[in-house]
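DATA CLASS: polypeptide
GOAL: derive structure tokens

***
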Amino acid sequence: MPDFSLGKLIVLGAIIAVVWYGWKYAQRVEQVRRALKEEIDRRRAGTPQARNRPAEDLVKCTACGIYVPAQGARACGRADCPWPR
């Protein structure tokens, strides 16, 4: 008759838990690696929308020093901002 002591069952449970969580961790690492590879491939290929987007001129706000689009600039919120709200 097999000897099932409490200590052996705890060790067996710990081994099963380590294998289970190790497998889940390996699957998660593989999923993240695959997602990163797809993102890198997508960025290398470039989207047509991003490649055909025209460049936009920027001008520096004299009040706060940030750069805003020359066309359609909006106020930064300061009272002395030269751009309309």
